[in-house]
Amino acid sequence: TQLEQALRNAIISDNVDVHFQPIVNLADGRVKGFEALARWIDPDLGFVSPAVFVPLAEERGFIDMLSETLLRKAAEATLAWPRDLFLSFNLSSAQLMDPRTTYNTLSILNSVGFDPRRLELEITETAVMTSADTAARIINELRELGIRISLDDFGTGQSSLGRLRDFTFDKVKIDRAFVSAIMTDRTSEHIIKAIVTMCEGLDLAVVAEGIETAAEAKKLRDLGCGMGQGYYFGKPMDQAATLRYLHDHY
Ligand code: G
Ligand code: G
Ligand code: MN
Ligand code: NA
């Protein structure tokens, strides 16, 4: 299709970019790391969301090529940041079913000179459900390299809690559906409280996603949530804006 060809060309000609959104410590507002988010503006098609082109690349079998380009760019950009900040990168579900993922990831990190202990890979519940044995093996291999694994969009998939028993994670990211309801909906508040308590017991870090107001940030902090992410702290931004952000918030 036209979209597929445009995307392939964009990857080859280095026109798919990566932006960064801050993840902060809710207690003091200091930045702890950034999530890499793919961005593509095609000269003819305009802005195309990664929610469209990532699934397309998965379907057409070139997600490995897309993802390798994005991880390389993100890791290279991260080298200009303070050493103690982490990089969070979204792994697609197809990559969790591909036994080459560990080797490919390590190759990129080695060639960039990036410490694997600074990397977190975000995976979704749907991804770990599809091919559980392979996913578990890849997750364990990655963790042995020092890479941390986050469970993204937590609470929205099927049998979220079972995932925590079957796989080893380092962090849980609470889906923004719960966060955006927290000021008006007591149920969401109780759910978040329960997730935070459970994660304490499991020794997992917690990030609340999609924080858009100061009131939400305060509420989540009061509920014991350690980290936050969302437009209130910063939108996804290019590398130049990221470095300016660090100047003010690190
Ligand atoms: O930032 P935004 O709303 O545009 O992201 C839309 C969706 O695309 C989100 O689900 C996000 O996880 C996904 N996404 C963004 N960047 C990447 C990426 O580099 N790799 C993968 N696999 N997914 C990404
Ligand atoms: O699926 P994942 O959690 O990786 O994707 C994160 C998505 O959420 C990205 O598309 C990102 O741009 C978007 N996002 C980040 N912060 C906010 C926010 O505060 N509000 C909204 N509506 N979207 C956000
Ligand atoms: Mn994510
Ligand atoms: Na998410």
Automatic annotation (TrEMBL):
This is Bifunctional diguanylate cyclase/phosphodiesterase. Residues 1-250 form the EAL domain. The chain holds residues 193 to 442 of 464 of the full protein. It comes from the Bacteria. The lineage of its organism: Bacteria, Pseudomonadati, Pseudomonadota, Alphaproteobacteria, Hyphomicrobiales.
